[in-house]
Amino acid sequence: ALNLLGAIAERREDLPAAIGFYERGLELEPGSIPLRARLADTLARQDEGQRALAIYELLIEDGALDADAERLYKAAMLNTRYGDPARAEGLFRRGLALAPGGVHHLSMAFILNRNGKLGEGIEHLELVLERYRADLSPQQAQLAARTLEQWRRSL
Length: 155
Fold this sequence. Notes:
The protein has helices at about 1-10, 15-30, 35-45, 50-60, 70-80, 85-100, 100-115, 120-130, 140-155. The chain has nine helices and no strands.
């Protein structure tokens, strides 16, 4: 019931209430993977990324996100934001193996560049523009093309 109330609060964009419902639900069912995952998602939306990341990492450690590409991507982005780009790279690789897509390859390119792997970043940008351009907004496609051109010149 608390999971359902949390979902309703989320739909109403009352994220603090949703977080409260999920936390109360976890007091009753501390091992609930769906409740932990929804809490992490909602915390990330509420700009409580470090708390969200801690929960995602526990879910990853437990194997609960092995087949959940979207949550792996969320954890990767939070790792990028909070200072562990190497971890972010590994999580993006896992997500891309499950569900490749243009936006995710684009993000991976930037993470690879940040991690000193410019050549591999270029490969991901090329892949984005050749195979996944339709997944991107016009602005993202322009960013990918401009970045690819800049990175090629820097080699």
